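Dear colleague,

Following up on Tuesday's group meeting, I ran the structure prediction for the two-component complex that the binding team flagged. I've pasted the input sequences exactly as they went in, so you can double-check that nothing got truncated or mislabelled along the way. The structure tokens for the whole assembly follow below. Feel free to forward this to whoever is handling the docking comparison.

Inputs:
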Amino acid sequence: MGDYINEFCMHTATCGQLGLEDVDGEVVLCGWAWHNRDHGGLIFVDLRDRDGYTQIVVDPDCVSAEDFAAAEHLGREYVLRVTGKVRARAEEAVNPNMATGAIEVLASKLEVLNTSVTPPFSIEDGIETDEITRMKWRYLDIRRPEMLANLKLRHRAAHALRNALDKRGFFEVETPILANSTPEGARDYIVPSRPNPGKFYALPQSPQQFKQMLMCAGIERYYQIARCFRDEDLRADRQPEFTQLDIEMSFVEGDDVIDMMEDVMAEVLPQVGVAQEFPLQRMQWAEAMDKYGCDRPDVRFGMLLHNITDLVKNTGFKVFASVAQQGGVVKAINAKGAGDWSRGEVEKLASIAEENGAKGMAWVAFTTDGQEKSPIKKFFTDEEWAALKAEMEVEPGDLLLFAADKPEVANAVLSALRLHMAEALDVPREGHALLWVVNFPMFKYDEGEKKYSAEHHPFTQVLREDLDKIEDVPLECGSYSYDLVMDGYELGGGTIRIHNADEQRRVLRRLGLTDAEIDEKFGHLIHALELGAPPHGGIALGLDRFIMLLAEKPSIRDVIAFPKTSSASDPMTGAPSEVTARQLKEVDLRLL
Amino acid sequence: MGDYINEFCMHTATCGQLGLEDVDGEVVLCGWAWHNRDHGGLIFVDLRDRDGYTQIVVDPDCVSAEDFAAAEHLGREYVLRVTGKVRARAEEAVNPNMATGAIEVLASKLEVLNTSVTPPFSIEDGIETDEITRMKWRYLDIRRPEMLANLKLRHRAAHALRNALDKRGFFEVETPILANSTPEGARDYIVPSRPNPGKFYALPQSPQQFKQMLMCAGIERYYQIARCFRDEDLRADRQPEFTQLDIEMSFVEGDDVIDMMEDVMAEVLPQVGVAQEFPLQRMQWAEAMDKYGCDRPDVRFGMLLHNITDLVKNTGFKVFASVAQQGGVVKAINAKGAGDWSRGEVEKLASIAEENGAKGMAWVAFTTDGQEKSPIKKFFTDEEWAALKAEMEVEPGDLLLFAADKPEVANAVLSALRLHMAEALDVPREGHALLWVVNFPMFKYDEGEKKYSAEHHPFTQVLREDLDKIEDVPLECGSYSYDLVMDGYELGGGTIRIHNADEQRRVLRRLGLTDAEIDEKFGHLIHALELGAPPHGGIALGLDRFIMLLAEKPSIRDVIAFPKTSSASDPMTGAPSEVTARQLKEVDLRLL
């Protein structure tokens, strides 16, 4: 009972900490009246605070008549201060499922600190209330134990990360929110500047440029739990503002940042309840794309992609053969356990393939009773068929799904189908799995826009052995880049940065910028690189997503105290809202 | 040499840590070539990193010809990696003023990691470079040891505060930056919302409403090192965005928050080099105004204000007598050591009085050679004069300065003169002094606007004994309010909040709001108070100002990594800047 949490306040213990060792102690508890009931002339109140709940017994023989009357008229969520004595419960009343279930507090005094009107939904876990209602009364939603637990976990994780980084010599440095527009990024939020009519700040999409400046400034090891902003359309794991753990280090090369981050995670994960073995797997980007079809593989289950291009390149099934002969790929997954699905069920999967760019989806079902069902079997020779079954390690009960297309399309299709089938077949994916995906290509080519863009970002260092390829064979350039992947989500990513001004110019030119555009958009970065920039690199981790995965919640909204709706509004405060004509005029703007 | 700072990177030690105990050790150092010189066929380089600097000796007999040639052509701020052996310096070369002054490193290998063009100013402490230039090349400015020390101190202070709060059960919770407009505050920064044409977010001036919501949500103890925004004209200690340590607690009353914060400061201050005795002084607001003329007294020196109204109310000096008779006050300070100032010097002080609202400034000089000079002496009787001298404890060499006006004007005038005279007379103000100023009035009355406003803010709890006075004698209402004052600056302030919806309505009505306006502007707060709000209170500390005072710097710009100029712009990134027509159109705006 001597915790700091119980100092400087109106109570002497929390509602979650009392046990048999406290029996006969006088305590003062504060909290919310959760469940109230009369029984045998006594009133029982489950008094709840953020730490748990304790059973209060109000006996008319032990409190004033006034206090007893107050107890008789308690409403849900009334705020109470209860003074009383801890006593052991009768044996039959002990509740082993409750932290304080061995005791109860016999009240000697009961004060109603505040009343409550009836809440619009129950302050209980697992409610079915729609999310807009929960957000409108967010203070009631958070009062539910599962939401409080999420925010507590968020605090614990952030604090553990801070301590681990402080110990490793990282300084927390705050970078501006009123920043400048980021060239070539997503859409910026813009903020008019009153003393500079017609000019705008942009809210930062990340502190990327500032953290590189801090390395040029000699900070050497920087971190920040930084707010970032992107004006994009929203999804379950996107919010207008989000938080990232932003890290940058000087005098690093190669795998140094990966090694450091892994060391941090090995310290932090046990503190937030995750048992992860270290060192983490480091998977080449090419292998991730080949076997999982994506750069953020969920490695908690198999169902890997098999490349069967060679095997089918001469098959009588013309779709496969022509894709194979025109430089495309034919790949397949084996969804074990779906072999008895009906033709109708299987063909519905084609819509997933099509959403990911496929023109159709071939399949073969091997029923548990030994049949082979497929629209394409007839085009295969016996040898081809046998080879396919061997490659895919077919057993009765298996369903093969195929994609034949350009590699990026085939991968996207099968990656999506793999995740869908894992969900549909309830493939076990318990616990967490972290790994690194490393060595992304430096560039990718956009067929539509006919230009190169950076796979990670344009400040990434090309592998030293690929430096000569930037101008002529950019797609063959690897890069010092790494993503940390958790449970099939990209938790974060980083790169070793370019610290040489000429190298930075070469990469920007390869991305199609003229020297004038480079000076205009990236001038201050180039200047910094010319003035003694140290070798440096970093990483950024999505904190919201990390907590979402740790808490095993479906949406980052469950781990953000005050999130926005899918239309980027806050039903509680009414933001965004109209402003006065004067406010607009002060910043020289008018509405269209 | 085994620190974490030396893991996961290209060096094995920092430039600030080697000593005699490391002699004969092989080390790798990375850093910037600071001071380079040739002497006796050897090249000496002071290699600098964030931790300090180490003397490197490059001997042509110990490195390759190529490395020696590189050493001969080192420019200032070149980035180096040096491999070598630690050796004790010759006795006459030992530098006791340098942390690594007992040793030097004899290089066996020298790599130039990056070159540098000539910096626009020296990377040295105490430069006279104008601030705009420093901000344009901020990464060079921060590379100077004194600026790195400021940011390191900022990290250390913030981390110590976080640890102290975590230990006391506070959860860090992030509140929105894309928030709603704050009624009755300073000018907001506004951000157009694309999915909500014509609507705007406001950047928060403080997380006030969210932290109260978090208390209603049952978080119980919240903190955040929060970015806040005010679109105001800038001064030395104002920036468009600033950082506050924001704290809120539930189940508190009276002095609980003061006690908790004092406990935190007692833990944190020794970690940032401040020896402060505890408990801190708690000065009533009325006493601070009476004796110091302001609510943020610098108590490191005297020169207190004396109220001489009674003493002069019948004097022949009509200015004093009429002010005294019309309910004003006559007050004076004794600036010891200025008694020999010339009449011209003294009368220049009148401009300070006038800037603070006075119509003029009376004075009396007592020269060290025993003369009494004053334009007002002739109006005093001998008894009045003797009483004045006794009250002001006059000695030869003293200068009395007077203010006669409404109390708020007289206080402002003498508070400004007191600080000015302390500066002018070089009154010792060493070290730091913290104290609490408590019990602010709840309301103040604006003669111009003919209405009441809240002295602290409208969510402050009125002293329980003054509750009945809200409607009829509001100026007599005290409040549960407290400011933490350091060295004459308001470091922060807080209050116990209103947790009762009716009480909140009464206060808002007294501020002139109609019930409809209360619902419109404060509806979600009132709802939250009606739904089981716990008693709560909090405090916010200006982090920038705290670090500025700890670092003993004249401006918060020296302790912010990337501050804005007085026109709210950033010379390094060019923010704010123009945006494209398309960007404006997307948010339904056009420029006037």
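The first helix of chain B runs from residue 65 to 72.

Cheers,
M.
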